Amino acid sequence: MNIYVTPTIKKFKTEIYLSIDNNLIKFLNNIFKKPKLEFSNIIHNRPDLIIFTGGNNLINFSKNDYDRLRNSINQKTFKYGIKNKIKMIGICGGAQFIAKKFGSKISRVNGHIGHHKIYIKDKKKFFKKTYIVNSYHDFGITKISKKLFSIAIAGDNSIEFFNHKKKEILGIMWHPERYKKFKKIDKNIFKMNLWN
């Protein structure tokens, strides 16, 4: 499987770096057999899956150069994914980016640093009604687009997990790669057909 991962943009002194969390690489290697991973500022090989990672701020909430660069990469990648009908998953900031592209509302939220409970709305594809997830965001999806379907919400009704009603696109607001032991729900989200 070919997977393109959007890089996080980090600034250190006078340099800007494109990076990917090594834990995400471990997570993807744990799920897929020998995935071919690519991350750069441009897609070189047609991927089977595009992952929009967390990190950086949406351009609406930031004016620094590295967030602008990240937004530019996300915009080009999203356009490429839509045009070529490639499956896409957004993680945290990546989920916010995808949700915003389809007209969802992103707003500041409280209580989303640490761990909290999410409530599954579509219980057919899951074993439990609630899950505890990690959380590292100050902004959340507070109103979902009509083009998207909300699968899980937090206690404040912000959207934690969604998919597109027609396209193979979904987003989660937690980080599956940041657990010491990877969770079954996260593996299933990435490898099962939960798209529609």
Strand order of the largest sheet: 4-1-5-6-13-12-11-8-9
Major sheet characteristics = 9 strands, mixed
Number of helices: 4
- The fraction of residues assigned to DSSP E strands is 25-35%
The span between the termini is 21 Å
Low-confidence stretches: none
Coarse structural class: alpha/beta
- Return Rg in Å: 16 Å
Described by the principal axes of the CA atoms, the overall outline is globular
| Assembly state (oligomeric) | single chain
Helix content: 10-25%
Instruction: Give a count of the beta strands, DSSP E runs of length 2 or more.
Output: 13
Instruction: Kindly report the average pLDDT value.
Output: 90
How would you summarize this macromolecular structure in one to three sentences?
The protein has 196 residues and is α/β, with parallel strands linked by helices.
